[in-house]
Design goal:
By secondary structure, the chain is α/β, with parallel strands linked by helices. Helix content is about 35%, strand content about 25%. It has seven helices and ten strands. The strands form two sheets. The protein has a five-stranded parallel beta sheet, sandwiched between helices. The longest helix is centred in the middle third of the chain and has 23 residues. The protein is globular. One of its GO terms (molecular function) is precorrin-6A synthase (deacetylating) activity.
């Protein structure tokens, strides 16, 4: 029999971001799989457990924490970067496939809880596609509120200028290609916004939707250094950081 897997987007940190559709999927799940990323990120697993405790009406589900395979560290700009990520995803797929076969009954229902939305800068769907080539599973995707939506809501701004596009990119791409118009930047450990013209507008947020939320807005010239300092301090205190920002050129 085919095992079913829900990939549930649980929003960007605030349990109130969990949708009614996600609540239905949570209550349909028997086994939740979560990656153990070490002591520094224990609170991420704890928040997943909190969401389940809040929204699941009848106990009886189980949490299975999976060891995250080590990832070779390499510079994102290097030629080896994509291969390193592909190898890491392949090792994750092996761990997931084994856990699904060993921890979930042949007709059971499991779930992975994804921060924000599973379609946006998240590897869950790519890895499950690999798993599905080796294990008999069927999976669906429950969309969630993204960090981008949380960021613009908290800053009370529209994502785009009237009739204009918005690029979703990374810090590496921003450094290589520069900024034209508006861009949301994710996965930027290098504070690449500091390379933008001083008059560029920036709306930055970290730990969105959590009690540790940080928000700063202004021009890069006015607040860029402050954001870099806040980011470094927050990462030092927490051991990790999730942040994103919206840039808008002055042109």
């Amino acid at each position: 029999m085919t095992r079913r897997i829900h990939v549930i987007g649980v929003g960007a940190g605030d349990p109130d971001y969990v949708t009614a559709q996600a609540v239905d999927a949570l209550n349909d799940t028997q086994v939740f799989f979560a990656m153990d990323k070490g002591e520094a990120k224990d609170d991420l697993v704890a928040l997943r457990r909190l969401i389940c405790e809040r929204f699941i009406r009848e106990p009886g589900y189980r949490f299975v924490e999976l060891p995250d395979p080590p990832r070779t560290r390499t510079v994102p700009d290097s030629p080896a970067y994509r291969q390193v990520v592909a190898d890491w995803h392949a090792r994750r797929a092996q761990v997931w496939a084994s856990a699904i076969e060993n921890e979930l009954a042949p007709d059971g229902v499991g779930a992975f809880l994804a921060w924000g939305d599973p379609s946006l800068y998240d590897s869950t769907l790519r890895i499950l596609e690999t798993v599905a080539a080796h294990v008999d599973i069927d999976y669906d995707v429950i969309p969630g509120i993204t960090a981008i939506q949380a960021l613009t809501a908290r800053h009370r701004i529209p994502l785009n200028d009237v009739g204009e596009p918005v690029l979703i990119t990374t810090g590496r791409q921003l450094r290589h290609n520069g900024l034209s118009g508006s861009a949301v930047v994710m996965l930027d450990a290098e504070c690449s916004f500091l390379g933008c013209p001083a008059e560029t507008r920036i709306w930055w947020g970290a730990f969105l939707g959590t009690p540790d939320e940080l928000l700063v807005a202004g021009t890069v010239g006015e607040v860029g250094d402050r954001i870099a300092e806040l980011r470094a301090d927050a990462r030092s205190r927490h051991g990790w950081i999730m942040d994103t920002y919206l840039l808008r050129s002055a042109d």
